[in-house]
Specification:
Length: 419
């Protein structure tokens, strides 16, 4: 993955930005998973319903912020708000009786489920502004390595923290996560300054998003490309939900204490990101260059179809861990960078409004559908494994369709109206 002489500074800053962002999230992700199953997996449908409702509330507020302020204001401001909230959660967890109990645990679960989608969506939207199509295909995999390293460090710290100190000192993780998130703001501010450097041709910020709050939905209704990406994202979220339910059940049955469950979740996160790093270093760039974006889009759906078949035949923590590690590794190493490349030539309104809606609300809508389908399937005595295989097959079909659309439009993708 060659980096040109004038690109080193911005690539390093972008990589550090993603490193800090995912480190901040993965410090808290295992704790969220533990909160989610603290009262049993059967409580997840209600929690995820509240998550979708909260996402529906936040999206228009975020669109209003995007419509009112320039990027150099609303991107740092969004991260700053999240950092302040993290400190608030830490104080509540530290001082409330019983660490706030189920109410605080579920509230944090919902909040972090919104946080992680928004901050990552904003990151990739910003990257699609900074890099051209050619540079994105060449460098997005390299930049994604920063996020993988951040996730590895965050998961490792939390795993060790939970093993050594237990849950009594978990409030410190909130404060550490907030401090790390503050450092991402510094990276954003430096990147905005860097793009003005006269000797750096890589960085070119396009026009600001427009003043309309509803532009993102309008673009989504008109664009076949965005509609196809939405369907792909929805089906990805559905399969993620089914796998999440399998994971919750297996971990709940295998481990008895909160500390051991958190450590188990952290271990899955750690090895998922180790595999992701290896793939990003030795596989991603070569794969995308060889097979192209349309074919690359089908890799994760095909692997998911195989993985659910494997898990159906051999249920248990070992099979679950292997499947999760493989799936997350391919998602972060191949699937996510490839999807983000589709947005590079599109308009700022598409990147910061339509894309945000797809990455957050459409994604959580998939969670919502998946979590409520599960008890219905059980009520009529159907197998969740069979349903997972069926949805995975549909997802593979949607990936093929999206790939055909991209292949047809690839030469005209610079014209947003064409897609």
């Amino acid at each position: 993955m060659p980096v040109s002489t004038g690109e080193y500074r911005v690539v390093l800053l972008s990589t550090a930005y993603f490193f800090l962002l995912l480190m901040s999230y993965y410090l808290l992700r295992p704790m969220r998973e533990t909160f989610g199953i603290s009262r049993g997996v059967d409580k997840l449908p209600l929690i995820w319903s509240y998550t979708l409702g909260f996402m529906a509330l936040i999206n228009p507020l975020y669109s209003a912020l995007v419509a009112r302020w320039p990027r150099r204001v609303f991107i740092p401001a969004t991260y700053q708000c999240f950092a302040v909230m993290l400190v608030g959660f830490g104080l509540l967890y530290q001082w409330l009786p019983g660490h706030g109990g189920t109410v605080l645990g579920y509230t944090f679960y919902i909040w972090l489920s919104v946080f992680n989608l928004f901050v990552v969506s904003i990151f990739w939207a910003f990257m699609s502004d900074l890099y051209s199509k050619e540079n994105g295909q060449r460098l997005f995999g390299l930049i994604a390595i920063g996020g993988t390293l951040g996730a590895i460090v965050g998961a490792w710290i939390t795993g060790k923290f939970s093993t050594w100190l237990g849950s009594e000192h978990s409030h410190l993780l909130f404060y550490i996560s907030a401090a790390v998130l503050e450092l991402t703001i510094l990276c954003v501010m430096v990147l905005f300054k860097t793009h003005k450097a006269p000797d750096n041709s890589t960085i070119k910020i396009s026009a600001e998003p427009g003043p309309s709050v509803t532009t993102g939905l309008t673009l989504l209704c008109k664009s076949r490309l965005l509609q196809s990406v939405s369907l792909y994202t929805l089906l990805y979220a559905l399969t993620s939900t089914f796998l999440y339910i399998f994971q919750g059940r297996v971990v709940e049955q295998t481990f008895t204490s909160s500390a051991t469950r958190t450590a188990a979740f952290a271990k899955i996160d750690l090895w998922s990101n180790v595999l992701t790093l290896a793939a990003q270093l030795f596989f991603t760039h070569r794969l995308i260059a060889r097979v192209g974006i349309p074919v690359a889009l089908t890799i994760l759906p095909f692997m998911t179809l195989l993985g659910f078949g494997f898990l159906w035949l051999w249920p248990g923590f070992a099979a679950l861990a292997v499947f999760q590690v493989m799936r997350r590794g391919l998602h972060y190493a191949v699937d996510r960078p490839v999807r983000e490349m589709l947005y590079i030539p599109l308009t700022p309104d598409t990147k910061y409004k339509a894309k945000s809606f797809i990455d957050t609300f459409v994604y959580r809508a998939g969670d919502f559908i998946g979590i409520w389908i599960t008890p219905l399937i059980q009520a009529i005595s159907l197998s969740l494994g069979m349903l997972s295989l069926g949805i995975s097959t549909l997802w593979l079909g949607s990936a093929v369709w999206l790939g055909k659309l991209v292949r047809k439009k690839i030469k005209t993708l610079d014209d947003p109206e064409a897609v």
